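Amino Acid Chain and Its Fold in Token Form
===========================================
Purpose: to set a sequence beside its fold so the mapping can be learned.
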Amino acid sequence: MAKLYVCATPIGNLEDVSLRLLRIFREVDLIACEDTRHTSKLLNHYQIKNRLISYHGHSEGSREDKLLDALEQGKSIALVSDAGMPGISDPGAGLIGRAIEAHLEIEVVPGPSALIAALALSGFDSSSFVFEGFLARRGGKRLAQLENLKEESRTIILYEAPHRLLDTLSDIEKVMGGERQVAVARELTKKFEEVRRGTVSQVKAHFEETAPRGEICLVISGAGQKEIPSLDEVVEEIRDMVNQGMNKKEALKLKARQYNIPKTQLYKHLVDQEKRP
């Protein structure tokens, strides 16, 4: 049956696949991928053989015609990018849009997401956020984009290349100030995964000493968001509330929600502190 499957693939760790994704890889007539060599590694890892066809930023127009023809002839196609969800700062949006216009059936296969993983690891407010993808490469345009984001109250998520990270952090420092809280998450789900949190100035100083490498997500706290206190400080706030008459369980629940900290993690830290001599 003709269908375009829009498939999210691992952003690093090849174990981050679903049984559904592996089944679709086996069942479709062909797999359209950003880089056939990259996708072959995933298929080989799971001993899957299927026909691959390249579909990337430089081949979108002509290749889309070929893929649409295949769909209209009753073929099923799995669309993938090198990592994450096609169409999100990756090739794919063009083909998806044309398939919608042609009234072809489309099914999404969700999976790993670098931006969601980075947001969760940042510790910033995740109740609402904005995703800006990659900022402009040219400094002037990048500064203008940051000016537009300066008063954004929601958490901001960006993608960035390692060789441009310091320039971007410098521009954030100029526009938003050196005390704005940021988190740089790099090589997510891979062996050398790292999340560096702190003020813009602190994080920039770190990467001036240690050159950044790998795929990077840059998370910026929204305007007006307060620095996240340490667990010790949160426990102290809970004790103050209990001393003022609040039930300990309710105080813990309130602070866990306020700072977006898992209740089990906060409870364990509270118990560990109470055990200290």
Q: What stands out?
A: The mean pLDDT is 91. The radius of gyration is 23 Å.
